[in-house]
Amino acid sequence: MKVLIGCEESQIVCQAFRDRGHEAYSCDLESTRGNPDWHFQQDVMTLLTHEQKWDLIILHPDCTAMAVSGNRWYGQNMPLHAKRIAAVEWTLNLWIKAVEVCHRVVIENPKSVIFPVLRKYMAITQYVQPSMFGHTENKETGFALHGLPELTPTNDVSGLMKTMSKAETDRVHRMPPGPNRKRDRSVTYQGIADAMADQWGKL
Asked: What backbone phi and psi angles, to 5 degrees, belong to 34?
């Protein structure tokens, strides 16, 4: 398959597909921490054309303004609400353009205001936890799916988490401030990336 992973600079998902023999590329405005030969450092919108002929498009738009956890700043009547509106409009345009050029598209975000919007455009919504894929951490992740089945859990470790402290299971939420905090919090868990490549890569 020819796979585009948009808004990804870590190449976690890209590498998972590459490891399984697919022609996968990441794209982000930032340079990649992975292999630059597989990375487009540009606006992902420019790659969503019929000429590219992607078999699968996975998109990770910035969640800062859209995540429901930011309602106290970006919610209605809040100071930064205009940024939420702009982020939703951009992400909706990204979705519309992607499904016009590809039969299999997914948008990934944490619990976000974008999912009710995308459901109006025939997207199926699935929510997962890292614990469904072998990671003992809490971080609810949503997928808007077009032409794709829901991911099937591969290694449920939720029982193990009951024996762990909140500091251990909420590591991402408790990540200290720093220049790379946003970047590191947005990285896809390896178990979820492997499930994407194993399950969606076989379609």
From this structure: -105, -140
Q: Report the distance separating Cα 123 and Cα 95, nearest Å.
A: 10
Contact 94, 47 (CB under 8 A): no
Predicted confidence (pLDDT) per residue in 44-102, tens digit: 999 999 999 999 999 999 999 999 999 999 999 999 999 999 999 999 999 999 999 99
Q: What is the DSSP letter of 63?
A: -
Give the whole-angstrom CA distance, residue 174 versus residue 148.
Answer: 33
Do 91 and 114 form a contact (C-beta atoms < 8 A)?
yes
Residues in the chain: 203
Q: pLDDT digits over 87-130, tens only?
A: 999 999 999 999 999 999 999 999 999 999 999 999 999 999 99
Share of the chain above pLDDT 90, in %: 86
Residue type for 115, please? F
Predicted TM-score (pTM) of this structure: 0.92
Cβ contact 38:22 at 8 Å: no
Taking the mean position of all CA atoms in its chain, how far away is CA 198?
A: 16
Domains along the sequence of the chain with CATH: 2-200 (3.40.50.150)
- Give the residue ranges of DSSP H helices in the chain: 12-19, 71-74, 81-101, 114-119, 158-161, 166-169, 181-185, 190-195
